Amino acid sequence: MKEHEIDIYLDGVKTRLDLRKMDYISLRNLSMKLRRILGDNEYIHEVILESDLYYFRQEISAKTVGALQKHGIMTVAELMACSYEKLAAIDGLGNKSLSEIVYFIKQLGK
């Protein structure tokens, strides 16, 4: 099993999930349920922060992800470390892209 994979047993059947391939909403729901069951587990949050923005194309458009990556912003953590002013100065990021990013960061709870 790879680092970002987990095995889940449902009705006696083992299913392996690759957390990097899950969309943000599914990861967040899984994280919230695990926190209720296990307590404050930061693993899922860390996986999200370390994940390549490529995996969040359902939450942030491919055009926006491409513009961010073109400027060296590859992971969620790197995106969250950027100020709004820095993002607004990036070529290819207009008001719509900036709105997507702001909404995405709010969904992460920051």
UniProtKB/TrEMBL annotation:
Source organism superkingdom: Bacteria
Keyword Transcription on entry: yes
Keyword annotations of the record: DNA-directed RNA polymerase, Transcription
Gene3D superfamilies: 5' to 3' exonuclease, C-terminal subdomain
Domain RNA polymerase alpha subunit C-terminal, residue spans: 59-102
Pfam family, one: RNA_pol_A_CTD
Protein name: DNA-directed RNA polymerase alpha subunit
Native species: Sphingobacterium zeae
